[in-house]
Specification:
With 262 residues, this protein is an alpha/beta fold. It has a single domain, classed as LmbE-like (Rossmann fold, 3-Layer(aba) Sandwich). The chain is 35% helix and 17% strand. It has 8 helices and 8 strands. The chain has an 8-stranded mixed β-sheet with strand order 3-2-1-4-5-7-6-8, with helices on both faces. Helix 2 runs antiparallel to helix 6 and helix 3 crosses helix 4. It is globular and about 50 Å long.
Length: 262
């Protein structure tokens, strides 16, 4: 048995980017732990979801617990920082937010947990956090440093296959428009040539989608992730991608059953 720790920025990130891997590792008998940097205070709640007087973070903590259960996690913890919001928002200046956290101090917090559970594998995000969110970028920085401090041998960066996304956009009726000189999709994920591994999670697509559904304050039945038919969802999200810092061009992802170290 190996120990997998997945480090994420906000509630629901675990479901979207590593939910399949987590469930697959748990199904294979490995120990899975979820650590979330913030409680998602800056999210936008769906109308009518919160009870009178209920704070968004309170609901998101409960949603994360349910998602963790569905994904087979042994523990589910929060690192203790506040949500920084999207890049450029005033919330980025909050001294208690994750974006403002001292990387060394935050890494020490995470390293303590890695040592406690004797982690073999840690997942973080790629260097620009998948799409530039400050908390996601901070997960990358803090996670890599924490692995150094704790001696965690295997660190993988959850990412998205930019080539696949750009190709899909080309077939959209109303494709998004890039900013400045950027093409649509240029700021999402990584080029396929720089991605080291892909994990087929087709057998775990049901639990992955249910873990997404658990985050009702953020994702309703009218949102894309839950609105598309099951077969379309499976076709689009049955692969999760992981890179390794410093790899550069590796010629494209190698398909593995589970990440090395598990």
């Amino acid at each position: 048995m190996s120990v997998l720790v997945c480090f994420h920025a906000h509630p629901d990130d675990e479901a979207l980017s590593t939910g399949g891997l987590m469930r697959k590792a748990a199904d294979a008998g490995h120990e899975v732990h979820l650590i979330t940097a913030t409680r998602g205070e800056q999210g936008e709640p769906k109308p009518g979801v919160l009870s009178d007087g209920e704070e968004l973070w309170e609901r998101r903590v409960l949603e994360t617990a349910e998602s963790a259960r569905l994904l087979g996690c042994a523990t589910n913890r929060f690192l203790g920082y506040e949500d920084s919001g999207m890049i450029g928002e005033p919330s980025n200046d909050n001294p208690a937010c994750f974006w403002q956290a001292d990387v060394e101090e935050a890494a020490q917090r995470l390293a303590e947990i890695l040592r406690e559970v004797d982690a073999d594998v840690l997942t973080v995000y790629d260097a620009h956090g998948g799409y530039g969110h400050p908390d996601h970028i901070q997960v990358h920085r803090v996670g890599l440093r924490a692995a150094e401090l704790a001696g965690t041998a295997h660190v993988y960066e959850a990412t998205m296959n930019r080539d696949d996304i750009v190709a899909a956009m080309e077939h959209m009726e109303d494709p998004p428009v890039g900013e400045g000189d950027e093409k649509p999709g240029d700021n999402i994920g990584m080029p396929a040539a720089e991605i080291r591994y892909q994990v087929n999670i087709a057998d775990q697509i049901g639990p992955k989608r249910e873990s997404i559904r658990a985050h009702r304050s953020q994702i309703s039945d009218d949102d894309f992730f839950l609105k598309v038919p099951d077969d379309v969802f499976a076709q689009m999200f049955s692969t999760e991608f992981f890179a390794v810092t410093g790899d550069g061009d590796v010629g494209g992802p190698t398909e593995v059953e589970l990440l090395p170290g598990l």
